[in-house]
Design a protein that fits this description.
By secondary structure, the protein is an alpha+beta fold. It has 11 helices and 28 strands.
Length: 557
């Protein structure tokens, strides 16, 4: 079996500078110009493999970020204006998600042909993989059009979207108008490049104690999806907007991870942009923050663990630079003694009374940041209130954040007491250059309570913009229509708006060297702002997206 698909192999992210020393001919998969995956066979995998291999080598787990008004965001005015009439013509949209129902009318021209340029289905191994990739199946526009003419389309192009999230996201951006269902995408004349992600390997889910049946994806497959979309865009010479409607609460929430670095790079390229969901972790009470500025330099916090959360991981990120120890007290007063930071050590603790097992990695130097991080992984924890105490070994001030997993990787029964809704934007939403989008209710102009909030862990401004994200009309598999809510829907809306600006700049010759970073700054400048607030802020960013006002600001209309 291909090692990238084989659950007996770990996928470790390494710098390309290290590849020559590890390459055996069939154990390396290139991710991009900076990083590759090294596939490591491991007999008798166990939790302390995280320790034998560093935390930053393992891909993070990503979850989906969504569960209607075009007029509110100025889109319709842009379409109507005779000097603009922008609908995304000549722009490609990249979708990395759960796939697409390519048979849906929302992705077809009036003559019945497809607006999908290509699909890379990472889960389907019966066809030919894309050039320079060694798994999955690629289906081009000709394949899809042939399937649409067939009485049995799936016999020709056997890819589908059983979840519906990818279909909905694609339709919000680019869906063909349907008057009967009062539906239209934001930029309905764009073309689509679609990646259907394979699910995360079971060995990665076990390592991070994710529920066995939870739907989630791994960071490395997203990066491969980005690389594929860029290759198709380059081949077709079309300007590109990528939408990422999923996120992860793993990592330091600082924009320093591998996927964030990749997005930062490509958004600075001509005619390339990325819209990223801010996540939906704002009101789930999965973030805790505390700052200690006076002696004694120790502090504790409480975590309520629900009955249904049998396995999960909690991350604690102290700052700055000294060493912090951790002690844990269970609801029945069993104690895990003080654990000091070290390099490459994984410690297992069995609590006999409650039959709970805890693994602790108190990592002195995390690879991407150089900061300390403490990973606490629970197996069969006793339900109830747990207490955690952090202490500075050098008796000096420090602060710390703690995060629980995102999305469906943990239930709402597990949460922090005195939780903090801020600093809850999921990766890669803390990326500096991509457009990070939070969601608001376009019917009453209120921010969605679940929308992730900034700032980043180091105080950078995120989110960038707010877009409509409440009950947005969308296509769903089976030629049906429904609605979608969440920051993923908002990111899709903003991606459609970005495609309009890309059409104006590149396709219509008004700014042929335009970069995604420039488009994002234009969108932020043109946002609607409420005089009651100071901007930018950690809830609304620079305000509500308004493409019509954007063009007014740059004196186009």
């Amino acid at each position: 079996m291909n090692k990238i698909l084989d659950n007996e192999y770990y996928d470790l992210i390494i710098s390309n500078t290290l590849v020559p020393g590890f390459d055996t001919g069939d154990n390396i998969t290139v991710l991009n110009d900076e990083y590759s995956m090294m596939h490591i066979w491991k007999n008798n995998m166990d939790a302390c493999d995280l320790g034998r291999y560093t935390y930053d080598n393992f891909p993070s787990l990503f979850t989906l970020t969504s569960k209607v008004s075009i007029e509110k965001s100025g889109i319709t005015n842009v379409r109507r204006h005779p000097d603009l009439s922008l609908m995304g013509l000549g722009v490609a949209i990249g979708i990395i998600d759960t796939g697409i129902d390519y048979q849906h009318p929302a992705f077809r021209n009036h003559d019945g042909t497809t607006r999908i340029l290509s699909i890379w289905d990472q889960t389907e191994q019966s066809g030919m993989p894309p050039k320079d990739f060694n798994f999955g199946s690629e289906y081009g526009k000709n394949h899809i059009n042939a399937a649409l003419k067939s009485t049995d389309p799936l016999s020709i192009v056997p890819t589908f979207d059983s979840n519906g999230h990818g279909t909905a996201i694609a339709s919000v951006i680019a869906g063909t108008p349907d008057e009967e269902h009062s539906f239209t995408g934001v930029a309905p004349q764009t073309e689509l490049i679609v990646v259907k992600l394979k699910e995360a390997k079971q060995n990665l889910k076990k390592l991070f104690f994710a529920p066995e049946n939870a739907l989630c994806y791994q960071e490395s497959d997203l990066i491969l999806g980005i690389r594929y979309i860029l290759s198709v865009s380059e081949k077709t010479a079309l300007p590109l907007v990528i939408c990422i409607a999923m996120g992860s609460s793993q990592g330091g929430h600082d924009g320093l991870g591998v996927i964030s670095a990749y997005l930062d790079q490509i958004v600075q390229l001509p005619k390339t942009n990325v819209s990223v969901a801010a996540g939906n972790e704002g009101y789930h009470r999965r973030h805790y923050f505390h700052r200690l500025e006076a002696a004694p330099f120790c502090s504790g916090f409480n975590l309520k663990i629900g009955r249904n959360d049998k396995k999960f991981t909690m991350e604690i990120w102290p700052f700055p630079p000294g060493k912090v120890t951790i002690e844990i007290f269970s609801p029945n007063r069993e104690i895990v003694q003080s654990i000091s930071p070290s390099a490459g050590v994984c410690q297992k603790f069995s609590l006999p009374f409650g039959q709970t097992t805890i693994w602790i990695n108190n990592i002195l130097l995390e690879g991407s940041t150089g900061d300390q991080v403490i990973l606490v992984r629970f197996d069969n924890p006793i339900p109830g209130i747990w207490y955690f105490q952090l202490t500075s070994t050098e008796n000096e001030p420090f602060s710390f954040h703690s995060w629980l997993p995102s999305g469906n990787l943990i239930s709402n029964e597990t949460y922090f007491y005195h939780s903090d809704p801020n600093t809850t934007i999921t990766a890669p939403g803390n990326t500096r250059n991509a457009l990070t989008v939070t969601a608001y209710n376009q019917f009453d102009d209120s921010i969605l309570a679940e929308s992730g909030r900034g700032y980043s862990r180091f105080g950078e401004i995120v989110p960038d913009i707010a877009a409509p994200g409440y009950r947005i009309p969308c296509a769903i598999p089976g030629k049906q229509y429904g609605s979608i809510t969440g920051s993923g829907a908002a990111a899709a809306h903003a991606a459609g708006a970005s495609a309009m600006v890309m059409e104006w700049g590149y396709c219509k010759g008004n700014h042929t060297t335009v970069t995604g970073l420039q488009i994002n700054h234009m969108i932020m400048r043109g946002a609607q702002r409420n005089g009651a607030f100071t901007y930018p802020n950690n809830i609304w960013g620079y305000g509500q997206i308004d493409v019509y006002k954007l063009f007014q600001r740059i004196s186009v209309i």
